[in-house]
């Protein structure tokens, strides 16, 4: 009754699965991608390089880095048919609905990468990975443009991954958006910190779908849907909505926390974690970068900042939260950074999906490459009625 889903033959129904991608120690607050501490990657690396590491297992050599960057640049545009597909969603469609549909649609536009035969799909893996990582960013930005009644922008071949995203999002017909180094760095760090996180809900969903032999795009599309849930990837948006509600109620957080503690109010979004029973190391890094960017990203004047700091201060010393080992997680501060960059709240979970794409891809391949792979088939404890005979309609009261 552990609820674990079994991907590996050797583990029977008792445990989880084998993976060599990400290591987490929840008690010690440790997170490593392929053995590299997240703190070192946050300081020295960037999202594209970290995506390569998560997917291929090693830091790229100069030529590998160039080839990967070229593949991402070549795959940045999306086909006319998909542009029409995206622009025909209702203008107020939630971006996560558009994203999951569009990621799945990539399988239709690139059938040679989505044969649902893992042997064949693995032969085209590098191209499929570049299509998924590059186009998730373009699709996200195009969705924002449709949501806001604006014309599409087109990728610039000479722009980096984050710079191109910000250009696709915010350039206007007579005013190209050129991001500052601080904004591009803040976005790079946000995406890097989300690149993978072991067997979380959405990644397990990707692996469940992959275990049936499904192609990469169908699998990550399912991951997008799982991530959309407010207890998972939707939490970053829920944090800002929570802070905004506290602000609008004229509360400084005290009343909100009291209500959360006696179970009458909402949960403290951005707090707590199934695995981290200490401070989420990503939250520490994002908070530190956040304070460094207070001036350059003009966050200092954000009224929600004071409320966030008050909530954290109270919760870190309140027995209700401490006794339940509820500490800030990656979502608590990330929303404030995205808000400072100008990304609307309904796009926050989409940003999480962009960051998590390399992890989903790496974990999909772990399934597809595993010769001992068996379809995931969770079991249950039956609690329904015992055997009984059919009752004809005339005999039903
Ligand atoms: C992510 O798994 C991953 O790795 C996910 C993720 C990733 O990178 O993929 O890290 C991303 O999803 C981060 C988490 C984002 N979600 C939120 O911030 C939503 C708010 N947090 C929670 O809903 C909750 O903390 C979870 C879902 C994250 C974890 O919940 P658990 O471990 O299943 O804990 P629980 O629901 O069993 O709660 C235990 C107790 C309960 O109280 P009691 O029944 O003991 O009285 O703690 C309480 C809960 O009510 N509690 C909270 C709380 N979280 C748990 N009380 C107030 N505020 C909260 N946030």
From TrEMBL:
Pathway assigned to this chain's UniProt record: Carbohydrate metabolism; tricarboxylic acid cycle; isocitrate from oxaloacetate: step 1/2
Keywords: Transferase, Tricarboxylic acid cycle
GO cellular component, one term: cytoplasm
Family annotation (PROSITE patterns): CITRATE_SYNTHASE (PS00480)
Catalytic activity: oxaloacetate + acetyl-CoA + H2O = citrate + CoA + H(+)
Gene3D superfamilies (alphabetical): 2.20.28.60, Citrate Synthase, domain 1 (1.10.580.10), Cytochrome P450-Terp, domain 2 (1.10.230.10)
Biological processes annotated in GO: tricarboxylic acid cycle
Active-site residues per Swiss-Prot or TrEMBL entry: 273, 331
GO MF terms, alphabetically ordered: citrate synthase activity
Family statement: Belongs to the citrate synthase family.
Name of the protein this chain belongs to: Citrate synthase
Provenance organism: Termitidicoccus mucosus
